[in-house]
TrEMBL record:
It holds the Pfam family ThiS. Gene3D superfamilies: 3.10.20.30. The lineage of its organism: Bacteria, Bacillati, Bacillota, Clostridia, Eubacteriales. InterPro entries: Beta-grasp_dom_sf, Mopterin_synth/thiamin_S_b, Thi_S, ThiS/MoaD-like. This is Thiamine biosynthesis protein ThiS.
Length: 66
């Protein structure tokens, strides 16, 4: 499996929310794309991952110019 372009070993079948917890990522502050499809926020909890998945985790950043 790849996460943000880097190989990531999937030791056992797990859900997306379990992966996010392992990576210490707050699911309320990100958008997740699996195999080029955006995962709806309400589907994060039940989405199961596969060894051949390509996952992109996009974080929201605050700030801007004054």
């Amino acid at each position: 499996m790849q996460v943000n372009g880097k190989e990531y070993a999937l030791k056992e079948r797990r859900s997306l929310v379990e992966l996010l917890k392992e990576l210490k990522v707050d699911p309320n502050r990100i958008v997740v794309e699996i195999n080029y499809e955006i995962v709806n926020r309400e589907d994060i909890e039940g989405k199961l991952l596969n060894e051949d998945d390509s996952i992109e985790i996009i974080s929201f950043m605050g700030g801007g110019s004054k």
